[in-house]
TrEMBL record:
TM regions (residue ranges): 12-40
GO CC terms: photosystem I; plasma membrane-derived thylakoid membrane
Localization per record: Cellular thylakoid membrane
Pfam families, sorted: PSI_PsaJ
The protein's name in its UniProt record: PsaJ, photosystem I subunit IX
Keywords on record: Membrane, Thylakoid, Transmembrane, Transmembrane helix
Organism annotation: Nostoc flagelliforme CCNUN1
């Protein structure tokens, strides 16, 4: 039988895995880029008058 803290320790180990950190960092980077481009769009598609 597992100790009550084993599940918490395993979850913290899982969150520190490289694939999880990679997905989170790529998601944050893409979200930042998308929000930036929403407020300041590329001049190629929205030329200045």
């Amino acid at each position: 039988m597992q100790k009550p803290n084993d599940q918490k320790d395993n979850f913290l180990k899982y969150l520190s895995l490289a694939p999880v950190l990679a997905v989170v960092s790529v998601s944050v980077a893409f979200s930042t880029w998308a929000i930036f481009n929403y407020f300041l769009p590329d001049l190629l598609f929205h030329p200045m008058p």
